[in-house]
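re the bet — no i am not wrong, look at it urself. input seq straight from the record:
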Amino acid sequence: AKLQMFWQYFDELPQPWVAARDGSHPVDIWRRVVSTPPMWSRLEIPLPAFDINWEGGGLEKCADSVQVGMSNRYPGGAPGGVLSTGKYQEPIYFAERPELLVLLLISPSLNPNEAVVVSGARQFGASVGIGSTVRAVQGGATRTQRQIALTQDFMQVDALDFRDPATPCQFSEVAIHRELLKLYAGHSCAVLRKP
Protein backbone atom coordinates (compact mmCIF):
# COMPACT_ATOMS: atom_id res chain seq x y z
CA ALA A 1 0.00 0.00 0.00
CA LYS A 2 2.80 2.46 0.85
CA LEU A 3 4.58 1.74 -2.41
CA GLN A 4 1.36 2.49 -4.31
CA MET A 5 1.07 5.82 -2.49
CA PHE A 6 4.69 6.69 -3.36
CA TRP A 7 3.99 5.84 -7.01
CA GLN A 8 1.07 8.26 -6.94
CA TYR A 9 3.57 11.03 -6.22
CA PHE A 10 5.99 9.95 -8.96
CA ASP A 11 3.13 9.54 -11.47
CA GLU A 12 2.10 13.13 -10.86
CA LEU A 13 5.60 14.62 -10.60
CA PRO A 14 5.99 15.36 -14.34
CA GLN A 15 2.82 17.48 -14.23
CA PRO A 16 3.67 21.20 -14.06
CA TRP A 17 1.50 21.88 -10.99
CA VAL A 18 3.49 19.28 -9.01
CA ALA A 19 7.02 19.92 -10.24
CA ALA A 20 6.94 23.72 -10.04
CA ARG A 21 6.54 25.21 -6.59
CA ASP A 22 5.72 28.85 -7.12
CA GLY A 23 6.54 29.80 -3.54
CA SER A 24 2.91 29.99 -2.47
CA HIS A 25 3.11 26.61 -0.74
CA PRO A 26 6.70 25.96 0.37
CA VAL A 27 7.59 23.09 2.69
CA ASP A 28 8.82 24.67 5.92
CA ILE A 29 10.61 22.64 8.59
CA TRP A 30 11.29 23.77 12.14
CA ARG A 31 13.32 21.75 14.63
CA ARG A 32 12.85 23.19 18.10
CA VAL A 33 15.22 22.42 20.97
CA VAL A 34 14.31 23.65 24.45
CA SER A 35 17.60 24.07 26.28
CA THR A 36 16.17 25.31 29.56
CA PRO A 37 12.93 23.71 30.73
CA PRO A 38 10.33 26.15 32.01
CA MET A 39 9.44 26.26 35.67
CA TRP A 40 6.00 24.72 35.13
CA SER A 41 4.64 25.78 38.53
CA ARG A 42 5.49 29.44 37.80
CA LEU A 43 4.15 29.71 34.28
CA GLU A 44 1.14 31.97 33.93
CA ILE A 45 0.65 31.48 30.20
CA PRO A 46 -2.98 30.56 29.50
CA LEU A 47 -3.69 27.42 27.51
CA PRO A 48 -4.79 28.11 23.95
CA ALA A 49 -8.41 27.69 22.97
CA PHE A 50 -9.06 24.36 21.32
CA ASP A 51 -11.80 23.74 18.80
CA ILE A 52 -12.57 20.10 18.16
CA ASN A 53 -14.97 19.38 15.33
CA TRP A 54 -15.92 15.73 14.86
CA GLU A 55 -18.35 16.43 12.04
CA GLY A 56 -15.60 16.25 9.40
CA GLY A 57 -15.05 12.51 9.84
CA GLY A 58 -12.06 12.42 12.18
CA LEU A 59 -9.09 14.44 13.34
CA GLU A 60 -7.02 13.55 10.27
CA LYS A 61 -9.52 15.39 8.08
CA CYS A 62 -9.52 18.67 10.03
CA ALA A 63 -8.30 21.73 8.14
CA ASP A 64 -6.03 24.25 9.89
CA SER A 65 -4.81 21.63 12.34
CA VAL A 66 -1.60 20.20 13.72
CA GLN A 67 -1.34 16.46 13.11
CA VAL A 68 0.84 14.89 15.81
CA GLY A 69 3.05 11.85 15.30
CA MET A 70 4.22 10.61 18.67
CA SER A 71 4.94 6.91 18.50
CA ASN A 72 8.67 7.13 17.94
CA ARG A 73 11.69 9.42 18.23
CA TYR A 74 12.48 8.71 14.59
CA PRO A 75 10.39 10.72 12.12
CA GLY A 76 8.37 8.37 9.94
CA GLY A 77 8.34 5.60 12.54
CA ALA A 78 10.99 3.27 13.89
CA PRO A 79 14.26 3.22 11.96
CA GLY A 80 13.09 2.62 8.42
CA GLY A 81 9.40 2.66 9.45
CA VAL A 82 7.95 4.40 6.42
CA LEU A 83 10.50 2.80 4.09
CA SER A 84 10.22 -0.62 5.68
CA THR A 85 7.42 -2.52 7.41
CA GLY A 86 5.71 0.39 9.24
CA LYS A 87 1.96 0.32 8.64
CA TYR A 88 0.47 2.50 11.35
CA GLN A 89 -0.14 6.23 11.76
CA GLU A 90 3.22 7.88 10.95
CA PRO A 91 4.48 5.58 8.18
CA ILE A 92 1.09 5.85 6.43
CA TYR A 93 1.05 9.62 6.87
CA PHE A 94 4.55 9.89 5.36
CA ALA A 95 3.59 7.62 2.44
CA GLU A 96 0.57 9.80 1.67
CA ARG A 97 2.79 12.90 1.83
CA PRO A 98 6.17 11.89 0.33
CA GLU A 99 7.58 15.41 0.77
CA LEU A 100 7.85 14.53 4.48
CA LEU A 101 10.58 12.00 3.62
CA VAL A 102 13.15 14.79 3.74
CA LEU A 103 12.82 14.54 7.54
CA LEU A 104 14.52 11.15 7.40
CA LEU A 105 17.62 12.91 6.08
CA ILE A 106 17.74 15.97 8.30
CA SER A 107 16.22 14.68 11.54
CA PRO A 108 17.62 11.26 12.34
CA SER A 109 16.39 11.06 15.95
CA LEU A 110 14.72 13.38 18.44
CA ASN A 111 16.16 14.04 21.87
CA PRO A 112 13.85 14.36 24.91
CA ASN A 113 13.89 18.16 24.63
CA GLU A 114 13.12 18.59 20.92
CA ALA A 115 10.36 18.40 18.36
CA VAL A 116 9.98 18.90 14.61
CA VAL A 117 7.14 20.67 12.82
CA VAL A 118 6.58 20.58 9.05
CA SER A 119 4.22 22.86 7.19
CA GLY A 120 3.24 22.67 3.52
CA ALA A 121 3.77 18.98 2.75
CA ARG A 122 1.31 18.11 0.01
CA GLN A 123 -0.80 14.97 0.04
CA PHE A 124 -0.73 12.76 -3.04
CA GLY A 125 -1.69 9.30 -1.79
CA ALA A 126 -4.69 8.21 0.24
CA SER A 127 -5.40 5.08 2.23
CA VAL A 128 -8.06 3.18 4.11
CA GLY A 129 -7.53 0.92 7.09
CA ILE A 130 -4.55 0.58 9.39
CA GLY A 131 -2.04 -2.12 10.24
CA SER A 132 -2.49 -5.30 8.26
CA THR A 133 -5.68 -3.93 6.64
CA VAL A 134 -4.15 -0.73 5.18
CA ARG A 135 -4.85 -0.30 1.48
CA ALA A 136 -3.98 2.49 -0.95
CA VAL A 137 -6.91 4.28 -2.55
CA GLN A 138 -6.86 3.99 -6.32
CA GLY A 139 -6.26 7.41 -7.90
CA GLY A 140 -4.73 8.90 -4.75
CA ALA A 141 -5.96 11.81 -2.68
CA THR A 142 -9.07 13.71 -3.66
CA ARG A 143 -9.00 17.41 -4.42
CA THR A 144 -10.53 18.12 -0.99
CA GLN A 145 -7.93 15.97 0.80
CA ARG A 146 -5.15 17.81 -1.03
CA GLN A 147 -6.56 21.22 -0.10
CA ILE A 148 -6.94 20.25 3.56
CA ALA A 149 -3.40 18.84 3.67
CA LEU A 150 -1.98 22.23 2.69
CA THR A 151 -3.54 23.74 5.82
CA GLN A 152 -2.20 21.06 8.16
CA ASP A 153 1.09 21.05 10.00
CA PHE A 154 2.79 17.82 11.04
CA MET A 155 4.41 17.74 14.49
CA GLN A 156 6.82 14.94 15.39
CA VAL A 157 7.22 14.36 19.12
CA ASP A 158 7.72 11.06 20.84
CA ALA A 159 5.95 9.78 23.90
CA LEU A 160 7.67 7.61 26.46
CA ASP A 161 7.19 3.88 25.96
CA PHE A 162 5.80 2.74 29.29
CA ARG A 163 6.05 -0.91 28.26
CA ASP A 164 9.83 -0.59 28.72
CA PRO A 165 10.76 -1.44 32.35
CA ALA A 166 13.57 1.17 32.25
CA THR A 167 11.04 3.99 31.61
CA PRO A 168 9.99 6.03 34.65
CA CYS A 169 6.50 5.28 36.00
CA GLN A 170 3.79 6.86 33.87
CA PHE A 171 2.60 9.48 36.36
CA SER A 172 5.92 10.08 38.07
CA GLU A 173 7.21 13.65 38.18
CA VAL A 174 10.12 12.73 35.90
CA ALA A 175 7.81 11.27 33.24
CA ILE A 176 5.32 14.15 33.42
CA HIS A 177 8.07 16.77 33.12
CA ARG A 178 9.58 14.98 30.13
CA GLU A 179 6.24 14.75 28.30
CA LEU A 180 5.44 18.39 29.08
CA LEU A 181 8.84 19.48 27.78
CA LYS A 182 8.37 17.51 24.55
CA LEU A 183 4.94 19.01 23.88
CA TYR A 184 6.14 22.48 24.89
CA ALA A 185 8.88 22.22 22.27
CA GLY A 186 6.45 21.05 19.61
CA HIS A 187 3.66 23.51 20.28
CA SER A 188 5.98 26.49 20.60
CA CYS A 189 7.28 25.51 17.18
CA ALA A 190 3.81 25.01 15.70
CA VAL A 191 2.92 28.69 16.14
CA LEU A 192 5.60 29.70 13.65
CA ARG A 193 3.42 28.95 10.61
CA LYS A 194 1.82 31.94 8.97
CA PRO A 195 -1.94 31.44 8.48
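see?? Helices lie at 2-12, 16-19, 89-96, 102-106, 143-149, 173-190. told u. also The longest helix spans residues 173-190. so pay up
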